[in-house]
Amino acid sequence: MDKKAAKERGIYVANCAGANDVTVAESAIFLMLALSRRLNEIQSSFEKKILGHPIGTELMGKTLGIVGLGASGKELAKRAYHMGMKILATKRVVEEELVSKYNLEFLGGPQDLKTLLEKADYVSLHTPLTEETRNLISESELKQMKPTAYLINVSRGPVIDKHALLKALQHKWIAGVALDVYWLEPADPRDPIFQFDNVITLPHIAGSSQESQDRMEEIVVGNIFRVAVRKKPINIQINISSS
């Protein structure tokens, strides 16, 4: 979106913030379950009619690290807590009241990422892509994770250093990864990263559900009506001076 051109022409730019927070959180749970129950390996053994399927693990009692305790991160924390998980989180601006509100074992700032990575059994990424978060998870961070830990990315592909992730999978620094977002989209299924049994993939649909689509439509149509009667839309990204 060319925000400068939009502002020059008196065009509001708004988004649908809040429409898919629950959907993203539920997708992160789905991906954690797929990793924990070794979905790819189980599916392969079923298709090949192999007796004795791979045995997975439970989420209950495991430690979840949420990187980016924004809207979807908070929704994930609520659900993970009721599944019996211990929750650690980092947030750009630490708000101490969130610790009790979301039953967190730990809440730190960006400087505390190492603490989260060292303790978590599952690390779920929920950060926007900025200059600060680009390649946030690189070789040093992947080496800080437990070799039994899993990484989930439902934020933006470049938050993870792609070459470092491939190296981590090859050398088994981590137990596996689930990706909904990629460095180039659509992703090429022939990419070496996707050839591992412990890599779960979705086609960038973690935020898509019937309910989230309905909420987006309500926001968009509502904003059209607001502008038509000379009111400001909600979720403004670019305001216009003539309003």
Structural description of this entry:
There is one protein chain. With 243 residues, the chain is of the alpha/beta class. The protein has helices spanning 3-8, 21-36, 39-47, 71-82, 97-101, 113-119, 139-144, 162-171, 210-228, and strands at residues 13-14, 63-67, 86-90, 106-108, 122-125, 150-153, 176-179, 199-201, 236-238. It folds into two domains: 3-14 and 210-238, no CATH class; 22-201, Rossmann fold, CATH 3.40.50. 37% of the residues lie in helices and 14% in strands. Strands 4-3-2-5-6-7-8 form a seven-stranded parallel sheet, with helices on both faces. Helix 5 links the parallel strand 3 and strand 4. The protein starts with a helix and ends in a 5-residue tail after the last strand.
Features:
alpha/beta, Rossmann fold, 2 domains, two-stranded antiparallel ribbon, 37% helix
Q: Work out the count of structural domains.
A: 2
Q: At CATH's second level, what is the architecture of the largest domain?
A: 3-Layer(aba) Sandwich
Q: Reading side by side through the largest sheet, how are the strands ordered?
A: 4-3-2-5-6-7-8
Q: Report strand %.
A: 5-15%
Looking at this structure, what is the CATH superfamily of the largest domain?
NAD(P)-binding Rossmann-like Domain
Instruction: Please estimate the helix content.
Output: 25-40%
Number of helices: 9
Largest sheet: 7 strands, parallel
Shape annotation: globular
Mean pLDDT: 95
Instruction: Give the CATH class of the largest domain.
Output: Alpha Beta
The secondary structure category is alpha/beta
Gyration radius (Cα, Å) is: 20 Å
Helices and strands, in order, run as: HEHHEHEHEHEHEHEEHE
Poorly predicted tracts of residues: none
CATH topology of the largest domain: Rossmann fold
Ends apart, CA distance between termini: 20 Å
Would you report the number of β strands? Answer: 9
